[in-house]
């Protein structure tokens, strides 16, 4: 058991994926029972990654973040399941807002302001404000996928608008996108490993992101190799049960979300058709009112009332389109990218098993396992651990997100009916009114 | 033109001894609180003395006039005298069966016999303004049921009418099963029915139209048009609303399937799904209730036609009057010409007599005598026509005022009940979604 000063990482035996409860906290005292899933070590105990990480690198020497079981940030990842971090313990806040349209000779595009407030040591300043466009977010996401292949990277809103009829520069579209981009960055911020990613920091702080991007690209082209984590080509015989279960879960999950998306779209469509008829219905009462004397006011009242219901319905449909559908689609994309991560994991495992087999066939006398096979084993264990931890975090976040989403949907419907109720209740006295005798 | 003027019974409003302000609603469909107008004392109204219901409908087969087998629906009319001093003693219920065509016959008879009255309309012959779920089939049980209610409403309207309720044929319709058709035909009302009225859109120029009737006719046309439009759109609205609710039922199924793969979220999803099913099912009752509102509107759509008919009858009367006056004038002129020998106006007869020689004084005398007789007759006829016309206008306007009050009251009530229905629907919606929200919160 380790007791001890902050600073020195404690290497732990690499004995395969362990359950989280078995993993002793590097800062824990002799009594390990106090450890619980919600432990949150204070910020100043977090170590710079360069020291903490075991250096796994690509053949070309580029260091790759894999957060080995030994790194404390990786441990942190596995321990922090409860994302209801108090605001006080949080040390990084990111917001996306203030969309602006830029018209240039070559193109027109939107930028968003990304504001960062932080007390983290890695950042030179406590506050940053930069402007970023969609491509920059896309770049960030790719970089994260490359550099943190064992983790689940949150999804971005769709790049292209398939429907074609939607205006890329309409207020609604831009606002929907802004919310999604904000969510994207917040999810990264909340992730104990991803939030420390170098590319993420640059994204948040760099005045000229393009220069940095070019630098990265130049480096790559020099080396002429893709930064793929795994050298592919290996096929896994069978997926371990727990990951197969995750795979199955994600498959069904995507399917059900797809169905819900279709239902929601259908409802919106039916509501809009209902709205069309209502818009014709209300005015007929008004026309009738024009013919009458005593009934004129009541009929006008009914007409106005129906008009109010139309407005309420319009608001409901808009809300569902702007707030509900995009979140569903985000999660479908999320599930897709998670399935890809599962496949990558399979490949890592396949590589390991292949190499192990190759060694076994050679029948060497050496009892010791060669280094590169050992490295493969580490990679597998690492991947598995990260993935499991991320899955658990994802499940928890998903539950909260859907709870909020569905409650929001119920709320909007309640508000719609309340608006209509108010409208109809308010005309009852008007209808019951006795006119003055002529 | 010899015509027997039908004497409308009790067309003249009698002075009422006491004005009864009855605000109470009767239980039966269609009866309405009495207008604050001096008309025939309401105690005399049949609806007060007798309970009338159309309680059942039955499918029958029989042979019609052309000996062809046909299926039709018969309706059971039940009546019972209301005991004013009832102490648990109930008068016996009398009943008889009538089919729709007999109701039509009754109404036609009333229309012809009381041309100045806005005669209550029958429920529609064929299902109209239906939205997709409703059947347009006359034999459909829902249609038959709504027709049954409509027929009962018709009878109650007639029985509550101060003039119509006293008609003997109407009374016989309610009480006398056999021989009623013959009785109606014996009144000879079909002869009185002016065939010109059937050409509803035929125009004939009236030189001095009564402005009030012209305006009223215009109003009834507009009313028909606007209510038709309203009913059409309402049916479409109902259709769409049905669609919205029913699609929510799909949430029930998918939430259930989804809950199967979830651990903590499962229960919340499952129970929320159940509420979605409840929501989807609730629309059926909501729309069924709304049909009653549509039926109330339809009644006034058809009432508008009855109103228009009164205007048309007046128009026709006015036209006849003008024609008769014109005829009389020309006869007088002819008479004068013959008497004085001056030809003031050109006439073929005059010309031919000039060409082929004058008539003999005896011939002329004979002609003058005939004309004078005709003029005498004509003047009397014109006088009675004028009187008839004035009577018609007076009693028609009385009934029109009564109708206006009834219409305003009934339609207001209909709008209120519609608003109440909407309020109920909104409250149900709030309830269901609140329940669902609660389930989601437990996810």
Structure, described:
The complex is a heterodimer of chains A (438) and B (443). Chain A has nine helices and five strands, in the order αββαβββααααααα. With 438 residues, chain A is mostly helical. In chain A, the strands form two sheets. A three-stranded antiparallel sheet of chain A has the order 3-4-5. In chain A, strands 1-2 form a two-stranded antiparallel ribbon. In chain A, α2 runs parallel beside α9, α4 (171-190) crosses α8 and α8 packs antiparallel against α9 (371-432). Chain A is elongated and about 105 Å long. With 443 residues, chain B is mainly α. A three-stranded antiparallel sheet of chain B has the order 1-2-3. In chain B, α8 runs antiparallel to α9 (266-340). The interface between A and B is large, with 50 and 49 residues. Chain A: One of its GO terms (biological process) is protein transport. Chain A: It holds the Pfam family BAR. Chain A: Residues 7-18 have a biased composition (Low complexity). Chain A: InterPro entries: AH/BAR_dom_sf, BAR_dom, PX_dom, PX_dom_sf, SNX30_BAR.
